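Protocol step 4 of 6: structure prediction from sequence.
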Amino acid sequence: MLVIFNIILMALTAFYGIYLFYLRRKESERVKLLRQQERFMGNLVSEYGANENLMEALENSMRREDTLYNHENNKMLDALSDGADSESGEYFVRHAKNSFLSLLFALCATIRSYGDSVYDGVSLFARNLRYIKDELRAALLLSEEKKYQFSGLDMLSLLPIFFTIPIEDWARGIDDEMTGYYSGIYGIVTLLICFFVTIGSMWIISLMEYDSASNARASFFGNLFLKSGLFSYLLDRHITRNYSKYLRLNEELKKMSVYEDIKLFIAERIGSGLIFMISVGIAMPVFLTMGDSGTDSFPVFLAVLPAAFLTGFLMPKIRVMIYHYRNKNRMMEETLLFQTLILLLMHYSEITVEEILSWMERFSDVFRESIERAVDDFSYRRKESLDRLMEELSYEPAVRLAECMAACDEIEVTRAFYDLESEREYYMEQYRQSAFDSLKERGAFCRLIAFAPFVSVLALRLIIPFVLVGLTELSGYSNMFG
């Protein structure tokens, strides 16, 4: 009857594998969209050079390639028609498929508002479009490296659990004594361990590989438990008593955009632990009755429950650790986005620091709260808002941008950001190197993690039972001849 238990665990693993396949499809679609964007921007430069009418150039470029990307372009055209400051314009920037679409929208919106001009003998539109293409091509190179580093790892971690039944049949055919281990409490517990190791390794690999997995807010259990007034009240009291301990963590969580606040994070940890423990507590007694577990199963059952709680309790923490590892690159990526955005805006005499900050607010994620406060305070406390922004950003390239904005009180915007292009080139190269190194480190770590299910299945379902049977027989022989 334990075969049914095994099949259920394999089915659950297969369902999670289907989810990973869905993530891989989304990643493939993301890369395909980037390639279509690169072709579209190349067409847009030539079309704009031919007629110098932006809207007509956009429409002609869309006709040259009938792709899924045109659906996003139609949204952008509608937003441009309504204006950059309209509700649809702000919504498009916030919810575009990627940052390159948002940057293209910002470029087109500024051209429509302030017109085009010639800078160093080149159209400002064509010059600024080149900056966006540079970042897009860097993203494509990183996507290729990611595909190389993580290729096949999800399947490597998925497959071993499907060999538990063949391994068991083969082992029983060699020695009938193996049946006692596979049919008893040992068989149930080791199957659970192999299952959780498999799901855990696949989950960690997905967080390391797929942005769509790591960027999703995972707070289902936390929100569920916070609906209880008593639980929420007790949690508030606990946080208040340990305020200094949780204050810094709360700020880090907000910067990483993982959980809304520390309260939700703690609730998610407790909720996940309880749900895991309850699920195992319900499932194990059912399947214990299917096997020859005997009277020794109750102590093991009591030991498994806290282990299940600890597993669920640690999962949100592991998620935050992975986010923290990736956050440095996200700060660099967002700062490069700001630099590109300012390069698109700085050459127009009508542009003000307040408008630059307003555009940065629309594009911000990691630094969103700091920039939102600066925008809110800028109109009546200009200097103080920028000074506080410099203190809160705590990342040197981003602080440098705030310093340049503060310098605009004395000199014009173009002169304040005079050296921005060379700085962007330097930080772009630094970001590429850091991102490639990070991908290699993550790939090496995930290759190690991907072998964990194989090792657990081989050790727990084959090697250890054979060793135990061998030791039992050896002990029997010793007693017989002793």
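Step 5 (inspection) to follow. The mean pLDDT is 82.
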